[in-house]
Amino acid sequence: MTRDLISYVRERLFVPKIGAVWLLLSAMLMISGAQVLPSPWWAPAIAALGIVSFRLMDDLADRKHDIEMHPERCLAQTQHLPMFRIVAVALVVLTTIITVLGLGFYRGAGFLGLAGALFFVGRAYGLGAGRRKIVVLTVLLKYPAMVLLVAADPLSAKTLVMSAVAYAIPLADEFTGQRTSFHLSASVLALSAMANWQGILI
Fold this sequence. Notes:
mainly alpha, globular
């Protein structure tokens, strides 16, 4: 059981692409939520928990596809599926609590609502290959949604642009053959641009 969890973490979380997403999202949350976060360090914590929670939820929802297309993956082979479901629920609850403690009830409720929405969207993976791309495009909205949830001013031009970038980079990465290299380079460029913008606007 523990071995399966460790294998999943190594296979699906400790990979360059997820590290790049975490850096990018942490920077965005830190900038957009600067006025409401108790400390800048809450941003990478919320980003990490959100990414891990939603990654596991998505993998669980898409398990049937992985069994057919990626039978070598840990989640496709595990005999401890209920344990992974419990872990996913626990991660969502933990992230919701931390968001409530750091950002208040309404933002915490927003995160819980986002998790619920992703759960129901994930069930659409089983509707057939023709709708799979639509489901993927919808699931990727989790990244800009997190930026908007944490932002002090969700409707500001800066927040909206960052939200668009948070969607565009994973979206482009999803449809490129050079996933890891593209994601890393795009994240570095986006982080550099936001750092410059942060210095100008704040």
